Amino acid sequence: MKTRFLNILGILLICAVSGCVSTQKTQIAPQISELFKGKHKVSDYMEGHQPKTVAVLPFVNKTKSDEAFEIVRKSFYNHFSSLPYVDRELYKVDEMLKKAGIDTPEKVAQSDSKKLGDILNTDAVIYGEITHYDRIFAGVYSQIAVGAHVRMVDVKTNNLLWEAENVTRKHQGGISTTPVGLILTAISAAMNVRQIELLRAGDDLFRDMVKTLPAPTIAESLRPPIITILVQDTAGLPKKVGDTIKVAMEGDPKKQASFDIGDFKKGITMREVEPGSYVGIYQVVPKDNVSEAVITGYLSDDAGNTAKWIDVLGTVTIDTEPPAIPKELSSFGRDGLVSLKWDKNTEHDLARYKVYRSTSPLSGYTEVVSTEFTEFQDKGLQNLTTYYYKLAALDKTGNESKMSEYITGVPVSPGPTTVRGNISQDTIWYAGASPYIVEDQITVMDKATLTIEPGTIVKSRGPGIHIYGKLSAKGKQNGMITFEGMDNNRWGGIVFQKTKEKDSVIEYAQIKGAITGITLFSSSPKISSNDISKNDTGLSISDPFSKPEIKNNAISRNKDIGVLILAGANPVLEDNKIIHNGKEGIVSENSSPIISHNTISNNGTYGIKASLSSPKVIENNIHDNGKNEIYNSDPKGEVIDANNNWWGSRNISKIVSGISGKVDYRISLDAPYPDGKPFELSILKGSLSGNITRDSYLTVANSPYVIEGKLVIDNGATLTVEQGVTLKYNSGDISIIVKNGAINAKGTKEEMITFTSNSSSPSAGDYSSTIKFEEKTALSSFFKYCIFEYASIAFVIRYGTPDITYSLITNNSQSGINIMNDSAPKIFYNTISNNTGTGGIVSTGMSKPKINNNNIIDNPFAIQSSSTIFIDARENWWGSSPPNESLFLGNINYKPWLNETEKEAFSGRQK
Questions:
Q1: Count of domains in the chain?
Q2: Is residue 369 assigned to a domain?
Q3: What pTM was estimated for this model as a whole?
Q4: Residue 339 sits in the same domain as residue 315
Q5: N or C: which end of the chain has fewer CB within 10 A?
């Protein structure tokens, strides 16, 4: 930039120093036209309106040469920048235009100069057209033509200031021995010779052309040195560690020269090797990295006046970073060869791979092949000989990665290979010898190891593979090991027998068609990333010494159970997909597994079924299983910790309905793991009294509940009682009162819900009422498979239409059910017995209950009614046929009656 000498010029003009050529007005130097053979014009408007800041716009290329655009424009800019204008650097011009949406030379040419001036903040712009760019060869000589038309325009008025047009034709031949010429000769082998010769012609064209452009006269002491050409020797090829970048420049002699590599390295010294010829060298060191940097040369005199020149032939790229080490190198031995495969590297400048081989693991590796592909077959090898392989990647610069870890490859004769009996020494089953046919039981003895290569296929005619020693079956994602039966027959699977902590591994294997895919007796192998499917049972794990890690497996579509855990086993099940099994996903009996981060879904009956077990179930996705997501079948056992799981829904009722038995799931996830966040379900704990004003739940895990005071359900809330829950009422005026609310208490015949006294010696009348419906509500209540006992009155129904079905109402001191006002409960398939006082059912007001298919026996009165409406009490068993008419008081239609006990009616706990 020329800002510095323009500032100095201003000072000199103010001071009017004697001997300077400056005056109070800008002076235009005499036009130099005798050396320029083309056309040019300086407009009258230039006088008095000479610009200070000028931007060289992208040139429109009217030739058929793609490289003309960059070379010609840069050549013009190099010569123009030697004039005392403040010019905008080309890359900054291009960036600002691109941001403004003017991203092609054609758009630039069509844009208004005032708009361009505003974008670029300049006084003038220079438009350009490339008219010629060609070369005709004739042996070692050639004729070169470069032509351009350029014009400078004032951005405020759009007036032409200056324009010039010319075509340079040169006859070129021979070899130059200057530093610049030697570099051009050297890089001509790597670059297009045409580019180099055309560069010279373009340089000559603009050297003379810019001399016709008027410029302010300045003192000779402020005039910067002259640069005529600059070149560098990279020829567009990237450089790596140890390579050198050589730059040569020609200009005024006896000056100080340097060059920059973009913004990466500044001020690299150049040495004057002969008058006016300067050479600089930069050697690439580790961690040097730059992409497409422009070389800029500088020439300075002792006064500090500096000229600059940019390289127009290309940019410099330094790359010292090698590619990553190739991954997933694998081998497959065949007859007389080893087939190698690996994953493709992702580097954009990747060039090729090198495969190295040795006959020992740590040394002696020599290059076998250099290839652009991700596979290679090493042929001509000796069968059953172990070869060692390593792999490296190279980029286009020549940087080579470190070698990969070695793998082995063993050429083998092709299968099938028949196997049977005991394996008493270390043995390898090779993929190339597949399939291995198990004719009789395979037993890997205590101190032996059976190693199975990736891609190996094992087929059994029925017998299993029994491991007392060690099994290493390590497949790969793209080379899984297969274990299966033959002819669709079931086989014995893989059975580990008392291997305890031995480091057996099964990973990336498909195990199918077995009675049990993998059986672990006192064994703890690592089982990961397998497909265990289409067996009767996927895995069976038993004995306290079985503590295996079962991770990242697909355990699916097994006929019965996905994972069976027995007899004190303590496995860790993590990140598995246990899905679509015919019955249970996981069965835990008398064991303590850790079950986390799994998906357990779409299994036929239960996601998890536990009995006499204490599994820890955390951060799983358990949903859409047939009967329950989780079922603890032991009513007297420990509570299962199943907090922080996703149950397939945020709907609390749906969650509760999917869980059965003593399970703590009060904290659930609001979305599938791992994205779900914990939220607390309104599950009540401890003693109960006061108001319930939001939907709430009573669960077996927190049972029994003690009702220690009046418990009021209001504000549209529903209290849901899980099957198997027991509610114990303290003595006195204690009851659950339903106002604007509801109760949903649905047990089962096996897991009924019990409402009873909290007394250690309970008797009828211990507490006031079990349930009182005190106000009208639009909500419905349901009671099914419940026991109501030891109250004064079990139900007091002033309003509403609750369903009371399949329940036992017994041993209450005044009556079983009192029905009032216009309430209309449905009372079906219950046993109402041994209620004293007014008897089984009392109906008053305009109440209209439906009472059918019940056993109403051993009460002083079966039904008393003072309602004006006939009570529908048909099809009940009254203790005899015909019933004793003294059991009925009021308008009651009890005909027809049942002639025997209603067998479907619930009669309470089975003894």
A1: 5
A2: yes
A3: 0.63
A4: no
A5: C
